[in-house]
Every structure is written in structure tokens, then in C-alpha cells.
Amino acid sequence: MKQKTEVISELRTMLADVFAAKEKGEAYGRLARAHGYVDGYMRALLDIGIVTKAELLEVVNAERERASGPALRALAELEEAAA
To answer: For the chain, does the N or the C end have fewer beta carbons within 10 angstroms?
Structure first.
């Protein structure tokens, strides 16, 4: 079985590929299929207990930020505005 660091590294690569394809304007079908592969991979990691949902969210957010830049507003700001 692969180590946790290896599967996280593979997930980061897959996410980077998806975000790059989206940025390049890949055809919808190819992009949807790539999203499906990533979703299935993440689901399998959750099902076998290698990672937690929080860890996956952290990885996805980090890769999204690397590909698209930082979010425009911090979540804390939105929560404060809603209160």
C-alpha cells in the first residue's frame, strides 16, 4: 500500500492538472471526466481511511489557490459580516 505522502502528492498532481485544464478552456467533456477521476480518487481515500475530509479540503484549497491565486475575501470576513 502506498504511503499517505505518496497519495497526497498524486492528488495534488491530479488537482493541478484539472485546474490547468480549466484555465486553458478544455472541452467540457474532458474537464468533467477529469473532475470525475479526482472525485473518485478522493472518495476512495476517504473510504479506506487514509485521509480525513478536513485534510482533503486543505489539499484542494491549497491547490486551487496555487492555480488561481488567493481568494478575494477571507471566510472569517464573511462570517463576521453575517453576524
So the answer is: C
Nearest to 26 by CA among 37, 17, 15: 17
Cβ pair 13, 63 in contact under 8 A: no
Domain coordinates of the chain in residue numbers? 4-82
Please give the grid coordinates belonging to residue 44: 476512495
Sign of the alpha-carbon torsion through 55, 43, 15, 27: negative
* Confidence category of residue 82, pLDDT binned at 50, 70, 90: confident
**pTM of model > 0.85:** no
Are the CB atoms for 16 and 47 separated by under 8 Å?
Answer: no
**Percentage of the chain with pLDDT > 70?**
94
Dist CA 9 CA 24 (whole Å):
23
Least Cα distance to 64 among 35, 26, 32 occurs for 35
